[in-house]
Amino acid sequence: MLFKRRAASAFVRKLLYFALICGLLWLLWLGLGGVMSTGEGDQALEALNEFYMMEQAGNFGDSWELFHSQMKKRFEKSTYVQQRAHVFMQDMGTDTFTFELSEPQAEYDIRTEQSGDELGKAYRITVTQHYKTRFGTFDIVQPCYVTQEGEEWRVLWIYKHKE
């Protein structure tokens, strides 16, 4: 009887050691994964989410502030605010929209225009905006890019011409 208790006790002890080692290895794996990933994709996703939340609220002036400098050259702030409000709110007859963002995909050396400067590393995120308008419901699907400009994450749209 004593032998069975010792054997069972030894088995339980080994099982606990095995579980402890597995748990420590799992924590080490998670820790290394966190150290090795830069989290840049998540930061890019957060910046684009903030941009579209402002757009969703009709706050086009503050969303314009999140544009990359190349986009700000393309649109003056007052023009962007007026045109965005006019097209989406007045012409389409909608107050807001819902949106979804895809997972960020890192890309390198993209250009907003064929003759534009290369941006280096950027994250491509597809945005799907869902509208309910006086003309019916529809979706706009647009690939967007987010890259760092200085210390800030900035939004870009691509304007490549198809040949």
Automatic annotation (TrEMBL):
It comes from Paenibacillus terrae. It comes from the Bacteria. This is DUF4878 domain-containing protein. InterPro entries: NTF2-like_dom_sf. SUPFAM superfamilies: NTF2-like.
